[in-house]
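Friendly challenge for the regulars: who can give me the structure tokens for this chain first? No prize, just bragging rights.
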Amino acid sequence: MPAGRRSTRWTSGRHRAMMRFNQLPKTGIEEALMQTIANLDALFSRATEHGEVPGVVAVAASNSDILYEGAFGKRDLGKPEPMTLDSVFWIASMTKAVTTAGAMQLVEQGKLQLDEPVGKLIPELASLKVLDGFDESGAPKLRPATKPVTLRHLMTHTSGFCYDMWNTDMSRYIEQAGLPRIISCEKKALSLPLASEPGTRWEYGIGIDFVGQAVEAASGKRLDAYLHDHIFAPLGMKDTGFALGEEQRKRLAGMHARQPDGTIQPMPFEMPQEPEFHMGGGGLYGTAHDYIRFIRMLLNRGTLDGNCVLKPETVATMSQNHIGDLNMGKMPAAIPQVTNDVDLYPDQDKKWGLSFMINTQRTAEGRSPGSLAWAGLANTYYWLDPSGNVGGVILTQLFPFADKKVLDLFSGFERAVYEKLDGMKRAA
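First reply, four minutes later:
Bragging rights claimed.
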């Protein structure tokens, strides 16, 4: 068994296969399923043993069960502990879908409205400025925005807010203004101008941090408490939160940085444990098992194990294109220590739902058109395919984002899952 691997399986999906395909020789089905496990185990073992990633946890599931799970390598290259299935990761922007789900609960209750100006709830958003570059002296040129920002804009990255790590002008503005970066969780970090008029283009940004503020304003609860009571507790996501408890810290995966020569070194990193605001766009820690429960809830149209978190029509709404003719564009790196250029599936248009990227064509891995996906800054990724009734999570802790080795690993993982599911369908 490779060092650091706790367990892997293609779980009771194999039992469903036995029932569905009982006309086939049972040994043949078992052998095929075991071959899938072996292939995936080999994929992840090679990646950790060859130093491509420090450690990884991967889980795939249908709406009813775990299909595959595996943990490989080490939690931290500077420490002896192996990676385990219950290791805790900073999931960064995978937080966005969770925060948006919480906001959509309040939309269901009529406490939030998708298309009303959100400045009614968050005064700071009532009179926004747009950054129009810099004048000859180097001073920023600011003008009033002509349109109000709505909750839908914030959820779809069409509000005009951006991230400085993918916007050189905003990075320059932050430096000149002496503002903290968003990851500080200081309230001043939210005092940014827009990079464009609301509703005019897609640009990835801090909008869902303001969705978290809207949840607080509408519910009367701090975001951590609201998400615990209405998302985490109902779904049994016991290891997910903005702060690390004693038990979670014992299982925490360390952060790493890929060096210019391709090697990987441990690096210090921790999200603020007593933040001025809870970063609804990227502040959560959690485990693969917790997040796959969130994905399974969405595959089940809002319900998991009898607990209804969202209405089926709400999940359907979240899964639709909400940016019209706009497209998700390339995200050019402005801070290369943090992120590489991001250009996922450049051969097809990508749309955006209420916090999800939507692929418009079948991917090379097998993901159905209309599937949902996104990621976290430390190279954590997920997808859910409602048409194929499958989703998955792959977690590492590695900078910069969009690491080619991790993206290749994610692609290989997803491809193997679809190949096995397609093979089972053909056998039926």
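The chain has a mean pLDDT of 92. The longest helix spans residues 26-49. Your move, everyone else.
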